Amino acid sequence: MRVQSKILGLCCLSMCLMGELSAQTYNWIHSSENGMWEQSIVRLKSGVTENPDLIVDEHSKIGMFKTWGVTFNELCWDALGILTREEQDEILKNVFAADGDLHIGRGRISLGANDYARSWYSCDEVEGDFELRYFNIDRDKQTIIPFIRAAQKYNPELTFWISPWSPPSWLKINGDYPVLSSKFNDMSPKLDYLLYGNVGGVTDPDEMKLTGERNGKFPRQLATTDYMIQDPRYLRTYANYFCKFIDAYREQGINIDMVMYQNEAYSYTPYPGCAWTAEGTIIFNRDYLAPALKKAHPEVKLYLGTFNTNRQDHVEKILEDKKLQNCISGIGFQWEGREILAAIRQQHPDWSYICSESECGWGSFDWKSGEHTFELINHYLGNGCNEYNLWNFILADGGESTWGWKQNALIRVDSKTRTFTYTPEYFAVKHYSHYIVPNSEIVAYKPEGADKKPILVVKAPTQEYVIIAGNFKEETQNLTVKLGKRYLTVVLAPHSMNTFALK
Distance (Å, rounded) from C-alpha 145 to C-alpha 140? Predict the structure, then answer.
């Protein structure tokens, strides 16, 4: 009996030691321009000589993460359609399936045309149709809805939210879908003065550039005129327009659970868009859209956004309306809006915050764009966003829109050879989304900073830590993260993306 006890004790000890060793062993997944998604092993240490980049303990907590999202656009559907059925299935599985790469669980839908539609359209272009008798989603039935159903084949649990780029043209003061005239639309240049009204009346030529000197503020000049007609009959019709869209999609078996009133109210666009003032934003959301949703769709949440401006005082002016505060459940930030995310969240900690759109680049599809996306995800999740939405996940050739500008995507299709490639941006997203699943807890974060070393630490629902880190310098850098009493310490290769997950 005594011998048996000793043997049993030794077995238990051995098992404990094996468990302890296993708990200290991590898979190290690393990507660089010369090699994507390569794997090795690293073991935690009991001590180190240098100061940690991050210290994680039981008190570390930023917020809970919900889901990853993409946008369903017409030009994405067209790009996917260039490929064979087998290739389409491969891509859709990798993007949406539970056993795929990215684990996308959410979809963004545009009310009518956006800048990656084939052309301008809305759901009701019959002027004066205040009862919306001619409302329809016929165009979406040909493109967006088949696209969604193809994705649902691999993830039936997909959820959806909506935002418009432009109201129907007859609801706007310029009677057209853009904000400003250009060679890519038919709007009269004489109507450009509407943006600033009698205050100067001259548009800023730099505002529609993706890069440019703006003295740190975007836009440099705020619109002084709401492009949506500020008449109760028009505002009421537009609020009902949202409800009609939700109804029409529900009839197709697609349930929408969240609404934002406008995509990028601060981009004064030659493509579908709508400029709003702070006053117009408050009035429409507070007095029209929120009551309409409450009556017709109380299950649908109203978020403010998408905020693509770093003019904090302007955003605060909107948010300080007490009645409006009671109507909204969260806020969406993108582009320049990310600069004020932390400050706004500190003022309103009880709301939900999301990245409503990842920045889409300039059609380069290069490693630098992948690094930028990696840093963006680090920033948004590290500052408490519980949802991260990507823009176009697949585009053909140079990623050019109908309105003449180029953007990146996670997957690039060559229309001539009818082949596709997973871009660096795809792997940047995969380094996060493959391991950060719904109900993961974001526990610690370090911004990119001067060392160009962004770090994020996540606790999975299984209570295991995941560490994601980049090194975007030209030389190697040490990474040290303290996890309880143990240390993850490695040397990161130059211009590398890295994920550490328990083996």
Answer: 6
Element (H, E) at 14: helix 2-23
Question: Would you say 91 and 79 are in contact if contact means Cβ atoms under 8 Å apart?
Answer: no
DSSP symbols for 430-460:
HHHHTT--TTEEEEEEE--TTTT--EEEEE-
pTM for this structure? 0.93
Length of the chain: 503
Q: How many other CB atoms are found less than 10 A from the CB of residue 357? A: 25
Q: Which domains does the chain have, with CATH numbers?
A: 47-55+441-503 (2.60.40.1180), 67-438 (3.20.20.80)
Mean pLDDT per segment of 10 residues, for the chain of length 503 residues?
Answer: 46 40 82 96 91 92 96 98 98 98 98 97 98 98 98 98 98 97 94 86 73 81 95 98 98 98 95 97 98 98 97 96 96 97 95 96 94 98 98 96 94 98 98 97 96 97 96 98 95 98 92
Q: Sign (positive/negative) of CA torsion 453, 458, 464, 468?
A: negative
- Among 470, 428, 478, residue whose Cα is nearest residue 448: 470
C-alpha dihedral sign at 435, 437, 441, 447: positive
User: Measuring CA to CA, how many Å separate 258 from each of 161, 227, 352?
Assistant: 5, 24, 12
Q: What are phi and psi of 465, to 5 degrees?
A: -85, 145
Q: What's the DSSP call for residue 116?
A: T
Residues 6 or more apart whose CB falls under 8 angstroms from that of 226 comprise 173, 275, 276, 277, 279, 280
The tens digit of pLDDT for each residue in 268-297 reads: 999 999 999 999 999 999 999 999 999 999
Task: Tell me what pLDDT residue 256 has.
Answer: 98
DSSP SS3 for 48:
coil
Please name the helix (run of DSSP H) or strand (run of DSSP E) that holds residue 241, with its range, or none: helix 232-251
Give the C-alpha distances (Å, rounded to integers) separating 340 from 37, 52, 322.
Answer: 33, 28, 20
E-state strands within 275-376: 301-307, 330-334, 352-357
Query: 């629902």: which residue's tokens?
Result: 461
Local structure of residue 493 (DSSP, 8 states): P
pLDDT value at residue 7: 44
**pLDDT by residue (tens digit) across 311-347?**
999 999 999 999 999 999 999 999 999 999 999 999 9
Give first-to-last CA distance, the chain, whole Å: 37
Q: Which of 269, 344, 272, 350 is nearest to 305 (CA)?
A: 344
